[in-house]
UniProtKB/TrEMBL annotation:
This is TetR family transcriptional regulator. InterPro entries: Homeodomain-like_sf (IPR009057), HTH-type_TetR-like_transc_reg (IPR050109), HTH_TetR (IPR001647), Tet_transcr_reg_TetR-rel_C_sf (IPR036271), TetR_SbtR-like_C (IPR049445). It comes from the Bacteria. It comes from Streptomyces milbemycinicus. Keywords: DNA-binding, Transcription, Transcription regulation. Residues 35-54 bind DNA.
């Protein structure tokens, strides 16, 4: 849709998708610091075309982050439908962390480095936080996660795992440090395979 609410012409819709695809890749590898003109070049369109769809780099960044939030929200709902509360929680946590690790834009959004988001995007983020809190509470209720942590603690653990992985440069063993950090969420004496 256009900013006026009218449907986009087919060529404009294709250009918008090309811009979003190029932005996803660029933000994922380089974060929000990448120049908008470089995204236009990678999309194969002129800077004016990018500006017609996204007036600022922050608006483009937000569109990409919104896509991630929508996908993660959908996956969190699926995890809540899973009858195995502990494994569902850790599977979602692992997926969310792996995606954030692969995509600098999501990491910047999680840590607040991406700038202020619109009310719509903030609403999506709030929905995701509520779903995550429900996943955590459910996992704690069955003894899969220690009871003295909350969702903010887990977010800090996720960010810590991402930073540690990047500093360590664990390309040969991706996710290893995240797995080690997640062990701190288990009740004392438990293992990931046998929670509680």
């Amino acid at each position: 849709m256009s900013t006026e609410g009218r449907p986009l012409r087919a060529d404009a819709r294709r250009n918008r998708e090309r811009i979003l695809r190029a932005a996803r890749d660029a933000f994922a590898t380089e974060g929000i610091a990448i120049p908008l003109d470089e995204i236009a070049r990678r999309a194969g369109v002129g800077p004016g075309t990018v500006h017609r769809h996204f007036p600022t780099k922050e608006a483009l960044f937000e569109a990409v982050v919104r896509e991630h939030l929508e996908r993660l929200t959908h996956e969190a709902r699926g995890a809540l439908a899973d009858t195995t509360a502990g494994p569902a929680f850790f599977a979602f946590l692992t997926k969310m962390t792996a995606e954030a690790d692969a995509k600098q834009d999501l990491t910047e959004a999680i840590t607040g480095a991406g700038g202020r988001m619109s009310a719509e995007t903030e609403g999506l983020a709030a929905d995701l936080r509520e779903l995550f809190d429900a996943l955590l509470t459910r996992a704690q209720a069955v003894g899969a996660v220690r009871k003295d942590v909350d969702a903010a603690d887990v977010q800090a653990v996720v960010v810590g795992a991402l930073v540690a992985g990047r500093r360590r440069g664990e390309r040969d063993r991706p996710g290893r440090l995240a797995d080690m950090v997640f062990d701190c969420l288990l009740p004392r004496g438990a293992t990931p395979e046998e929670p509680g």
